[in-house]
Hints:
A 7-stranded mixed beta sheet has the order 2-1-3-4-5-6-7, sandwiched between helices. The chain has helices at about 1-10, 20-30, 55-70, 105-120, 190-195, 195-214, and strands spanning about 15, 35-40, 75-85, 130-140, 150-160, 175, 180. It has one domain: Maf protein. α2 links the parallel β1 and β2 (about 35-40). The protein is built from 6 helices and 7 strands; from the N terminus they run αβαβαβαββββαα. The chain is α/β, with parallel strands linked by helices. The radius of gyration is 17 Å and the shape is globular.
Amino acid sequence: xxxxxxxxxxxxxxxxxxxxxxxxxxxxxxxxxxxxxxxxxxxxxxxxxxxxxxxxxxxxxxxxxxxxxxxxxxxxxxxxxxxxxxxxxxxxxxxxxxxxxxxxxxxxxxxxxxxxxxxxxxxxxxxxxxxxxxxxxxxxxxxxxxxxxxxxxxxxxxxxxxxxxxxxxxxxxxxxxxxxxxxxxxxxxxxxxxxxxxxxxxxxxxxxxxxxxx
Length: 214
């Protein structure tokens, strides 16, 4: 796998995110490919605007923004939880579903508020089905006309009581019937093998292998 990665990326790939949970998961999943990954914050790159209503458009905007400001290939993901009873919401608004706290509080406080809003909206719903969705976009340079795009879906349901201390975001409330655990109760290795982001990155790796043979 290392030769595939080196052929495509030379030696460094910028991750177009400042979300520590995402950075951790992406780095763990890409490590076997031998790719040196660096967060955009190391280059002083700010978060890109995400004005679009689809995951893929937002991911492309983020990847091009990071590549344009660093001159390096860039990888971005856009992901979120889509709840059936809410017509697919929070969707692309998952990270900031609730209004940010007036006094700050960081990512953990935002996650708490997001989950609080989601549970309130589902309080009287019997249909708790949901899925996480992730799209991964890789651009070789900022104006790349043929970005590599891969996606993954992870099906489960939203429960009313948090379980587990791992993961981030909605993970403590995202129950997986096949595991009888929430996403927050899985080990990082278990989660990376079956999660929306893990599936999308695995699909991306397959695309890289194909490209290396062309």
